[in-house]
Amino acid sequence: MTEPLIRTTNLTQNFGSVLALDGLDIEIPPGITGLVGANGAGKTTLLKIVLGLLAPTSGEVSVLGTLVSENPIGIRERIGYMPEDRCLPLDQTAADFVGYAAELAGIPSSESRRRSSETLFLVGLHEERFRYIGDFSTGMQQRVKLAQAIVHDPELVLLDEPASGLDPKGREQMLELIIRFGEFGINVVISSHILEDIEATCEWVVMLDGGKLIRSAPLEPPAEGDEVSVEVFGDPLSLISALADLGVEATADGPIVRVTSDEGQAFEVVRDALAASGSSVRRLGVSLSSLEDLFLEEAGNQYD
Amino acid sequence: MTEGTHLSEPSPDAVIVDRGYRKYEGLRTGPRGTMLAIIKDGFRRVTGLRRKARRKVLPWFLIILALTTMVILVGIHWATSNTPADLVELPKNGEYFDIISIVALLFSALAIPELLVPDRAQGTLNVYFSRPLTVDRYLSAKALAIVTVLMAFYLVPQFLFHLGLAAVSDEGFLSYLAGNLDVLWKVPAVALVYVAVHGAVASTIAAFLPRVGAAAGVFLGSMLIFNLIAAFFQEATNFPGARYASLFAFEQHPRVVRDWVFGIDTVNYLPTRAGFEPVVSLAVAAVLVAIATIAVRWQYKRSA
Prior knowledge:
The complex is a heterodimer. By secondary structure, chain A is α/β, with parallel strands linked by helices. Helices cover 35% and strands 27% of the residues of chain A. Chain A has helices at 43-50, 72-75, 94-104, 109-122, 138-150, 168-183, 195-201, 237-245, 266-277, 291-303; strands at 6-15, 18-28, 32-36, 58-63, 66-67, 79-82, 156-160, 187-192, 204-209, 212-218, 227-232, 250-253, 256-260, 281-286. In chain A, a hairpin with a 2-residue loop joins strand 9 (204-209) and strand 10 (212-218). Chain B has one domain. In chain B, 69% of the residues lie in helices and 0% in strands. Chain B has eleven helices and no strands. Chain B has helices at 30-47, 53-79, 93-121, 125-128, 135-168, 173-179, 183-208, 212-236, 253-262, 270-273, 278-303. The N and C termini of chain B lie far apart (66 Å). The relative contact order of chain B is 0.11. Chain A binds chain B through residues 51, 53, 73-74, 76-77, 79-81, 83, 85-93, 96, 100-101, 103-109, 111, 115, 118, 121-122, 132, 148, 150, 152-153, 180, 184, 186, and chain B through 19-24, 26-30, 33-34, 37-38, 40-41, 50-52, 55, 118-119, 122-124, 126-134, 304.
């Protein structure tokens, strides 16, 4: 692996008696990474430690090759942050706010105005940049939050629930923008509990549960076509028996039968077994191994 | 197409260019630039610049009111310039504080909560503290913004008043200025005490309340109520040590200092009646600033 973007060593964070992060050892490579976990898993705590806003109880974090504890202020010049919570001044125009956010990161005033305009163009708010943020829709406000996170040209952007509160179209547009950041050479860490968003955008996934690391690995595209789920009317035993006659192993989960074929011919096998058993099909489709399945499986293993 | 009009043929090499994202390679201003940005933003916020029209009404009404009182006073000086000095005693720079300080008290009630409350209430601190900005640096910049704005509110009308008095003076413009050079230090010194007392009380209140209007109301109410309580304990009770209650007449301490600095005797203020020297009023101002610094810093450190 190349030099990790973020590396944590035995990172622990306590809030009184609550253990928010429990000895995390993570290495996140450059690119777009998803930080996954249920509410209270420790995602936002981890982001705040990466930003240097929170000093960990024990352990270390290095970001972009720099130990955060050694230079928590300096590191923030190189990081952008999009908070999940509301963070916009409703009585300011988008252009003024994003420009001010750039100035706070040390960009000179005149250049800040220019970059504000360019960044709002990039997120699709160029025409609306002189409107007051309070007059914006939720989707437009999310775009302003995104614009302020990248206006100072960070090397890494931390996005906390970027698609929160968006309608399906707005969500899709937001994810497209995030994918473009990767094309611009900006590293991205997306914290989300919407696993479909992570699947759609990320190359790497870090899963947290109860402050513990349960997985940090590349996000493989879901296997397609080699597993078929079929739901039949009535008892599925005759179908399972027919599948066994064809030399194919199947598992039943109530009325749903899952069939896996090593030769990638699951559909053909199921068709033949259905014909042989005379079963009536209620539903038939590809069985995908989603990130959600993976998360539930890994989280389950954690407590076994 | 009319004859003689020539449109160029589209070039086969023409392409639509995606402006994409521009990296920033220039200099960064560092902490000083960041603090300057906060002060500039504070000035704009207080005066309602780049905000909706209704946000400009109150501050500009008070600014115009302050300037109008100054113009009226200069006019009275001009109208009575031929009247013997022993027949009419008109207010000069020291006495003018009685008028300007009332308008400034209202302006402080508006400006200080406006500088402190919205960043917390609207959640923008989440964005600001993700920049290379510490809580102490942020609060220092806000304190500088408060002092700059309020000092300007006192000094600009006083400066114009001084020029006006010089212009209508029998002595002649330059002779009047040369004969009253002490005003150049007395006015800023007294203004600073007013700003310290009003600023400290208003900042402490604004740091703990979530609404600008509520903070303004509590500030004005507290200045009045502390005066009443101090007067009650001093005048109507025989408690041992009741004289110390006069120290809580916060609104009167700058006036005591004003009388002391300008050598004038307007009203017998509560601290004076209780036998305290003017230097005690200065000490009260210093203690209020110290308490405000500790309380505001604690509140922001807690919530950052």
